[in-house]
Each structure stands twice: as structure tokens, then as C-alpha cells.
Amino acid sequence: MTATGSTGEPPLARAGFDRAAEERATPDLLQTARKDAATRVLVIHGDAAPLAGTGRLAWFPAADVPDGAEWALLGRDDKDALLLTAVFPSGDDAPLPSPAGWAGLRTVGGSLDATDAAAFVEALSLGRWLIDSRYCPACGTLTDLVDAGWSRRCPSCGRQHFPRTDPAVIVAITSATDPDALLLGSNALWGADRFSCFAGFVEAGESLEAAVRREVAEESGIEVGTVTYRGSQAWPYPRSLMLGFFAEARDDAAARADGEEIAAVRWFTRDEIGRALAGETEVVLPGPASIAHRLIADWYGGRA
Fold first, then answer.
1. What's the confidence (pLDDT) of residue 8?
2. CB under 8 Å to 263, separation ≥6 — which residues?
3. With a cut of 50, which residues of the chain have pLDDT below it?
4. Would you say 188 and 223 are in contact if contact means Cβ atoms under 8 Å apart?
5. With contact defined as beta carbons under 8 Å apart, do 180 and 174 qualify?
6. Cα distances (Å, whole numbers) of residue 118 to 13, 15, 59, 67, 234
7. 33 within 8 A of 73, measured Cβ to Cβ
8. Which DSSP symbol is given to 135?
9. Buried b / exposed e across 209-247, counting CB within 10 Å, b at 16+?
10. Residue 177: exposed, middle, or buried by beta-carbon count in 10 A (0-12, 13-18, 19+)?
11. What φ, ψ does residue 18 adopt, rounded to 5°?
């Protein structure tokens, strides 16, 4: 696996603030922070966050957040104020009014500044675990939330549980012979004009390189040669860490869809990709919040 220089991190990979991990063990940190007028809170409702305007999240004082949330520490901002998240399930009504409505990470993640993007992806990743993993998987007992929302301890069997992250590879396939050709696939669950990179979870005992080769072969029929690491970003759908790669096909003619997960594969020219990125064709490519978009845009710009 070869590492290359970056032209900029994917939108959801930026470290926008100090996570203050060393403070998580501070006794009663959340209770103290919620009483501090300087504390700012990012409310999560299902997979949506409140907007203050175009490209900006709305942050609230802790006193404005209604009861019923799961709370956790996000970190500290550049003014040293504590940042918290308050997470509400998706089935309920919005917990409070938002100045400019509510939006999901897929929709606005690519347009946020580094602080808001980092906060949204952290809060949503952690929030899903806070809501969905209240009970001990070993004995079924309701757990106690500790470490400022970053772990759960079972009062019955004593086990400690942490948020889970599942590594997944995502791969843009370049041609063995044509520098102006890129292979993308269309998932069977999408519309016929939607194409993206090939992706899949890393299996138990498998390296990233092996996962790239296996997933690409399974989904596209392509055996790859050189595998080049591009970057990573969290993708909380439901709890993935997406690791992006370029991989070079050994034989372009071997491309074929698996017919199950992937309905179609297609070699695109650089001109076709450019027009699709500009929204000038019927082909739909991944949105700017995703690392798939960054892989495709980097290839188009000659940065593969």
C-alpha cells in the first residue's frame, strides 16, 4: 500500500477542535458543564442537527435544551468553552426550534467549516451509540453512562463498553492502460444513473489491502495491482470509518457487475466525470460530504 500527499482532507476528516479526551474522567463533568453559561451544545435529533444559516450549525446554551436527551462531551472550542452534545431519538418531534431548520450530515456536511463538520460527525457517531446501546450486550442490564458519555459500565456484571467503529474500504478504480478512464459502480438499491466508488467492510482478520482486493473483485470482477491509500473519514451510517483508496485495474475488460449488490459498472472518461461533477449530465455522483466525492474529484483533477 502506497501513501500519497493530500490535497486537503475529506470534509468530515478535519480536526476542528480539541476533543479534550483527558477530561472525560473528570467526576461530574457533564453536570458541571451544563450549569456553565459558556458551554455550547449541539443538539442531535435522529441524524439531523439544527442550522443557524447556510453552512452553519446552531449551538444552544445547555439551559435551553429540554429534558430527555443523552448527553456527552465533544471537547473544547478555541475560546476554551466546553462543547457538549444532547442526543434525542428520531421518532420524537424536534426537541426545540431551530433558526434555519434541521438537516442531515449527508446534506450539509460538505458545506460546514472545520469546527461544525467535526462536531456534527462526532456527535452523530457518538449519539447513535448513546441511543442504541443502553443495555449490556453480555447480560442485558441497563448500563450506567460514564466518562462524560464515552463509555458505559454494567452495574451487574461489571463490564465496560465503548462506542464501536467498523472499518470499511472505499475504492476508485483506475485503468491499466487509459489515464483518462475511471471505473464506478451503481448499487442495486440506487437509481440507474447514480454511480460511486466500490466499498465494503473489512472482515475479521483481514488487512486493508486484502479488503480492497477482495471487495473490488467481488463487486466489479476487477483484479487490482497497485493500491494507494488516499485518506479516511468517519461515516456514522451506522458507525463506519471509511478508508479511501485508489486501485489500478490489471485488465479493464474484466469489469462486470456482481448482479446482486452492484447492478452496473461503467468506465467513465475524464470529460464525463467533469460534466457529472458540474451537474451537467444525468449521472449522479456522491455528494461533497463523502470521501467518495473526494476520491472522484481528486482523480478528475489529476491527483490520483
1. 64
2. 186, 187, 188, 190, 192, 257
3. 1-7
4. no
5. no
6. 7, 6, 14, 25, 10
7. yes
8. B
9. eebbbebbeebbbbebeebbbbbbbbbbeebbebbbbbb
10. exposed
11. -80, 120
DSSP 46: T
SS3 assignment, position 129? helix
Q: In whole angstroms, how far apart are CA 167 and each of 170, 225, 232, 233?
A: 10, 22, 10, 10
Query: All 3 cell numbers of residue 239?
Result: 458507525
Contacts of 67 (CB under 8 A, 6+ apart): none
Cα–Cα distance between 100 and 112 in angstroms, integer? 14
pLDDT at 303: 78
Nearest by Cα to 41 from 24, 19, 57, 53: 57
**pTM of the predicted model as reported, rounded to 2 decimal places:** 0.90
What pLDDT is stored for residue 217 in this prediction?
Answer: 97
Which grid cell sits at 180?
Answer: 483518462
Nearest C-alpha neighbor of 243 from the set 298, 196, 198, 186: 198
Cell numbers 451537467 correspond to 280
Q: Output the nine-digit C-alpha cell for 277.
A: 461533477
pLDDT of 3 reads: 41
Beta strands in 7-158 (DSSP E): 40-45, 48-53, 56-57, 60-61, 70-76, 82-88, 102-104, 144-146, 151-153
Kindly state the cell numbers that stand for 74: 465533544
